[in-house]
């Protein structure tokens, strides 16, 4: 082969290598661009869920309206017509409003739950009865979207839910400095609601936490014990091979199958209630257990044989070798696989839908047998809601879910590095 032909072949190889590198860089750049667009759209669309528009009203707390019995007791104050007080104040602010239709349109600017906020404030401080109270109350969902700029007045009236006259009233309130966009703590602390401006993810967060707690308490000890037995003590036999094959197959089974299994066993056979964290945790434990076993076995197999040989050389028993030497070295990989498995369980929706955790739950669950939902199912419910305001609620809940998933994966990386440095 002549030198010129060899140089030509070498040049072609170099060009092919450059093209391959360019394709790799382009693929990474494209993936990052797609992720940036996806996360950016979610952040832009969901940022409004963490804020809400409120209107400041100066309301006279009429004793005859809010205290029917006149004894200032909690029972009496809770029976007051606070909705009537709000409506009366709105009519005073807009005296030109007349007719039942216009009055109804005016009242629809303020959230239906605003009267409960006013009631709670009066019940908390009965001395307010008989005086004027300046209080900020949440606007209704459509009015809130308009104040945040999500609804344009340039649209035809038939293309939006707000009437022209309602937009004019809102503009008056904004110009008077009575409307303000503030942080919405209820989105993180309250339960679900039919009214978008009142809906929150507090109940879903509590349900997810309790469900994952049950999953972790079942999966971690069983998964690690199974992995230790299969990797360190189980003899090589057809039975062991069959168990290993089934574990690998279970890790690849669609999650909805585990939901059907939970529906048949935990609900049908055992008679456990629907939509409770205990059943959800049991189903997710079955789903996550094969993942933890596989990751734990991989971590145990990665331990250098010299550690086992050194422990054996000083007279350690097989149990001492595993408990005192092998497990501590393999623990970073075991914890990493466990956290990743739990993060996957946090994002599961299909198996929980099968066991009925799709219920509309207003109260925040306080026990493992209380009706509840989880964050992915809450996102599913809001995404199917017809109100436009639930769109930003859905994106806001996705932001929270992504935050938890990223945090859990970051914790897995941190724990792995921390244990590796210590060991």
What does this structure look like?
With 423 residues, the chain is mainly alpha-helical. It folds into three domains: 3-47; 49-184, no CATH class; 202-422, MetI-like (MetI-like fold, Orthogonal Bundle). Helix content is 66%, strand content 5%. It is built from 18 helices and three strands. The chain has helices at residues 3-46, 63-66, 74-78, 82-93, 100-107, 114-124, 141-147, 164-175, 186-189, 202-233, 238-251, 255-269, 277-301, 305-313, 318-346, 350-354, 375-383, 389-422; strands at 51-60, 132-138, 179-183. Strands 2-1-3 form a three-stranded antiparallel beta sheet. Helix 10 crosses helix 17, helix 11 packs across helix 13 (277-301) and helix 15 (318-346) runs antiparallel to helix 18. The protein is extended, with a radius of gyration of 30 Å.
Primary descriptors:
3-stranded antiparallel beta sheet; 423 residues; 18 helices; mainly alpha; 3 domains; MetI-like fold
Overview in brief:
The chain is mainly alpha-helical and 423 residues long.
């Amino acid at each position: 082969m002549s030198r010129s032909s060899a140089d030509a072949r070498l040049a072609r190889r170099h060009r092919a290598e450059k093209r391959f590198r360019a394709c790799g860089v382009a693929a990474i750049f494209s993936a990052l661009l797609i992720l940036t667009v996806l996360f950016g759209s979610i952040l832009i669309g969901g940022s409004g869920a963490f804020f809400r528009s409120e209107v400041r009203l100066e309301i006279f707390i009429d004793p005859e309206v809010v205290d029917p019995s006149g004894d200032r007791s909690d029972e009496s104050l809770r029976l007051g017509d606070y909705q009537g007080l709000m409506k009366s104040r709105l009519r005073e602010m807009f005296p030109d409003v007349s007719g039942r239709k216009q009055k109804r349109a005016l009242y629809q600017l303020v959230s239906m739950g605003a009267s409960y906020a006013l009631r709670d404030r009066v019940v908390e401080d009965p001395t307010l009865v008989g005086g004027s109270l300046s209080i900020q109350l949440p606007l209704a969902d459509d009015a809130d979207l308009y104040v945040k700029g999500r609804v344009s007045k340039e649209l035809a009236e038939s293309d939006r839910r707000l009437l022209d006259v309602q937009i004019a009233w809102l503009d008056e309130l904004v110009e008077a400095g009575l409307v303000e966009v503030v942080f919405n703590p209820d989105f993180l602390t309250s339960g679900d609601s039919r009214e978008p401006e009142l809906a929150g993810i507090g109940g879903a967060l509590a349900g997810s936490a309790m469900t994952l707690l049950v999953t972790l308490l079942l999966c971690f000890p069983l998964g690690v014990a199974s992995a230790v037995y299969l990797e360190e003590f189980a003899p090589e036999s057809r039975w062991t091979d069959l168990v290993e094959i089934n574990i690998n197959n279970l890790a690849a089974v669609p999650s909805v199958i585990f939901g059907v299994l939970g529906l048949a066993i935990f609900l049908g056979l055992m008679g456990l209630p629907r939509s409770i964290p205990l059943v959800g945790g049991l189903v997710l434990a079955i789903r996550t257990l094969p993942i933890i076993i596989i990751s734990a076995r991989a971590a145990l197999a990665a331990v250098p044989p010299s550690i086992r040989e050194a422990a054996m050389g000083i007279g350690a028993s097989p149990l001492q070798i595993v408990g005192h030497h092998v497990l501590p070295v393999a623990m970073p990989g075991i914890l990493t696989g466990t956290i990743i498995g739990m993060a996957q369980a946090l994002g599961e929706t299909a198996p929980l839908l099968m066991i009925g955790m799709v219920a509309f739950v207003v109260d925040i669950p306080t026990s493992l047998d209380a009706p509840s939902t989880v964050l992915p199912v809450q996102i599913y419910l809001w995404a199917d809601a017809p109100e436009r305001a639930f769109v930003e609620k859905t994106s806001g809940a996705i932001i929270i879910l992504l935050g938890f998933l990223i945090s859990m994966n970051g914790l897995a990386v941190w724990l792995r590095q921390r244990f590796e440095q210590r060991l």
